[in-house]
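Help: why these numbers?

___
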Amino acid sequence: MNKLSLTDLQRYILHTMYRMELFPDSKPTQTCKVIGKIISVANNYFTDSISEHCEALYALAQPWIIDMPLIECKGNIGCTEEKDYLYSGAASPFYTEVKLTVEGMEYIEKFNLQTFHLSC
């Protein structure tokens, strides 16, 4: 997945996780804390619902959506059906934990997401 295929929200999720120091060698934190941080800081820029924030975050961890997951997620992140359509079915963000993968850190460094400027 290249830079253009990630949404602004997904890039901001990676930036937020980097700022929260959720590195590959650190302990994972609850997904709801990451989502809460995004909503509290960038609510004026990302006016999506909480469920859309969660879907964007879980998509970065689902191997059937992204070739190399950028986020490691512990807990139920959903599954796919035998059909071509996607089925989320992920657990509530209160029951999952996330941290960045090594590939996620490489993506952040490659596209300089350590600093992220929000603009309308």
Q: What stands out?
A: The two ends are 25 Å apart (CA to CA). The beta strands are 29-30, 71-74, 97-100. The first helix runs from residue 8 to 19.
